[in-house]
């Protein structure tokens, strides 16, 4: 018994694959979907902002972005935490990419012309999980606000 436990703990870890660009696009879009749902008012303007951001971030057509959104909606329906999405994003994106993603998430929050306390709290949690500091959190918000004005 002890030998089998030793083998179990000394066995090499299974290889962890790096997420593909499509996996990352779905994960990033799923974060935006989670944000659009946090205030219990999934607004059509927010969904359009998600498609716009997915198009811009992933350099895809509008049809492809809508397909990514559909996959992300499904992923978000079955998600148990934000970590499953942020883990993939942290593996795939560099710091600048994560800041750009956070800016897009702010754009989704601003799409309905108001940011409630639940949205801001969720964005702060996402920023923390993406290893972005308070300064980066605030700068992303300001860039999103200046673009939406």
Provide the helix percentage: over 70%
Give the helices and strands as they follow along the chain: HHHHHHHH
CATH architectural grouping = Orthogonal Bundle
CATH superfamily: TerB-like
Question: Which class in CATH terms?
Answer: Mainly Alpha
CATH topology: TerB-like
State the end-to-end CA separation.
67 Å
Number of helices: 8
Query: How would a crystallographer describe the biggest sheet?
Result: none
Secondary structural class: mainly alpha
Assign an overall shape. globular
Number of domains: 1
Q: Give average pLDDT, whole number.
A: 87
Rg calculated over all Cα atoms: 17 Å
Number of strands: 0
Uncertain regions spanning at least 5 consecutive residues: 4-9
- Range of strand content: under 5%
What's the structural blueprint in terms of helices and strands?
Blueprint: H1 2-10, H2 21-37, H3 44-58, H4 62-78, H5 83-92, H6 95-110, H7 117-129, H8 134-148
Helix pairs in contact: 2-3, 2-4, 2-5, 2-6, 3-4, 3-6, 6-7, 6-8
InterPro entries: DjlA_N, TerB-like
Domain Co-chaperone DjlA N-terminal: 26-142
Protein name: Co-chaperone DjlA N-terminal domain-containing protein
């Amino acid at each position: 018994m002890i030998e089998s436990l030793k083998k179990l703990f000394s066995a090499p870890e299974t290889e962890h694959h790096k997420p593909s660009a499509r996996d990352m696009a779905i994960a990033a879009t799923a974060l935006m979907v989670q944000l659009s749902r946090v205030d219990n008012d999934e607004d059509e303007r927010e969904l359009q902002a998600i498609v716009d951001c997915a198009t811009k971030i992933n350099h895809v057509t509008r049809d492809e972005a809508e397909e990514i959104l559909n996959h992300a909606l499904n992923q978000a329906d079955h998600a148990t935490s934000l970590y499953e999405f942020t883990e993939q994003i942290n593996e795939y994106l560099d710091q600048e990419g994560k800041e750009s993603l956070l800016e897009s998430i702010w754009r989704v929050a601003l799409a309905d012309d108001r940011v409630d306390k639940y949205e801001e709290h969720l964005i702060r949690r996402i920023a923390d999980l993406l290893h972005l500091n308070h300064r980066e959190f605030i700068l992303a918000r300001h860039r999103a606000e200046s673009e939406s004005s």
